[in-house]
Design goal:
By secondary structure, the protein is of the alpha+beta class. About 50% of the residues lie in helices and about 10% in strands. It has 19 helices and ten strands.
């Protein structure tokens, strides 16, 4: 029998798929109503498993080392779940090593992700839901990452509110290789505080030590929390919750989202004291390290937090330059001349990217950079279209209402497509209204 796989199907899962002993459809399973119910029993409760399976389906993801896909998981569970459940209850289930994947970062380095098998993702998700429920009441209110009813926007707004209260310096903490360097013994010790279930704790520990499959070999994982699995975010919050309450005890104002933490202070001198003392705490207590090259004490408008910064005049939210650069890089990829796609197809692809970007960055209060991006986007599309027209440029301009003189001067110009994309002729022929009609959204608020 395969002991692991990779997870989920588009069909609903019959009750028998998850357990022979679960209640029938329509009969709600309430773990709290079971006398002395263990936390593992809550993990294996039918309702919790169905939630986990639904989440794994939604997240999709690539197969791991066993090749099992998300769409194959339901059928796999239908045949093997009773045996897997028995292993989980007996404490003998062994997760498979995660598949190592390297994701390029903007600075040229690579982020190491570990992709669990789909079966392990399903089990991790079921565990994560119970761990979250147990720990959620105890997490600090200024922790915003990977928690229900909390978001990156709330973290940014919290930081903005603290700056508006007169705290005009930011201590920007960057934890060096956080997920790779978490001390597993300290993590397990922290988990015990609100997870009084030895069998469940042993299972979580096995996931931490499952190893990483690199090439044809498996490497041991004696430290860290592999990024890529559903358990990682909640375990990261358990580790860093200790930092949150220490900052609270010291009276600091801060906002934390996962391993991204900003503390606001009143002066440069205060910031230097805070940076030094918090760095010592992180090293001595959490056994982690602060990346001195990426951490700093500075004015808010010189730092970014979750893709945003604060405008140098006033305290309005502004999209960070690095976020704009990433968007432009994506637009350049979609509008490459060599793609040879129709303009309508290009706009459809851009629409998907831009709407997702706007959904996150739409809370920005400084609109001028967004208006500039809108202009730049239209210019990129005019450049793309002009290249596609080729020798038919004069005819296409005339057909769109450009005068004979302007059409002739533009089509016979020795300038390149990018220079010509800013001419009055192309602005008239391919107006903002024209692109709007094709479905191109604007990023700036109207």
């Amino acid at each position: 029998m395969k002991s692991n796989g990779n997870a989920s199907a588009n069909r609903s899962v019959p009750a028998a798929t998850l357990s022979r002993d679960e209640p029938e459809a329509g009969k709600r399973s309430e773990p709290e109503s079971i006398p002395n119910a263990t936390l593992l029993a809550r993990v294996l409760a039918r309702e919790n498993l169905q939630r986990a399976l639904k989440q794994v389906r939604q997240n999709r993801g690539a197969p791991a080392i066993d090749g099992l896909t998300v769409d194959e998981l339901t059928g796999y569970l239908r045949h093997h779940w009773p045996d897997i459940r028995a292993q989980l209850e007996a404490g003998t289930y062994c997760p498979q090593p995660v598949k190592r994947v390297e994701i390029p970062k903007p600075d040229g380095r690579k982020r190491l992700l570990g992709i669990p098998t789909v079966l392990d993702r399903f089990i991790q998700q079921a565990i994560a839901q119970v761990v979250q429920e147990q720990w959620e009441p105890h997490f600090h209110p200024r922790s915003y990452g990977f928690r229900p009813q909390r978001s990156a926007h709330q973290a940014v707004r919290q930081l903005q509110a603290d700056i508006r209260d007169g705290k005009r310096r930011v201590v920007d903490l960057d934890l060096e290789a956080f997920f790779d360097r978490v001390n597993q013994d300290r993590l397990m010790s922290r988990l015990r505080r609100h997870l009084p279930d030895v069998v469940l704790l042993r299972l979580i520990n096995r996931f931490l030590k499952a190893g990483v499959h690199v090439g044809n070999a498996t490497e041991a994982t004696t430290m860290g929390v592999p990024q890529g699995g559903p358990l990682s975010p909640v375990l990261a919050n358990v580790v860093l919750d200790e930092l949150d309450w220490e900052l609270d005890r010291r009276g600091h104002r801060f906002a934390r989202y996962a391993d991204d933490c900003n503390i606001v202070v009143g002066s440069q001198r205060a910031g230097e004291r805070v940076m030094a003392s918090v760095t010592r705490f992180i090293a001595s207590t959490l056994r982690l390290s602060v990346n001195a090259n990426k951490s700093a004490i500075d004015r808010p408008w010189n730092r970014k937090f979750l893709g945003f910064t604060i405008a140098s005049r006033g305290t309005r939210l502004k999209v960070a330059d690095s976020a704009i650069d990433k968007l432009k890089h994506r637009v350049r990829e979609l509008t490459r001349r060599t793609r040879g796609h129709r303009l309508t197809d290009i706009v459809a692809e851009l629409r998907e990217t831009l709407l997702g970007w706007k959904a996150y960055f739409g809370i920005a209060e400084v609109q001028s950079p967004l208006r500039e991006i809108d202009k730049w986007l239209r210019r990129k599309l005019r450049c793309y279209t002009w290249k596609q027209w080729g020798r038919a440029g004069y005819r296409e301009l005339r057909r769109r209402g450009v005068s004979v003189r302007e059409a002739w001067n533009t089509s016979k110009s020795a300038h390149g497509p990018w220079r010509l994309s800013k001419t009055p002729a192309l602005a008239l022929a391919l107006s903002a209204r024209y692109f709007s009609g094709l479905g191109l959204p604007t990023l700036a608020a109207r």
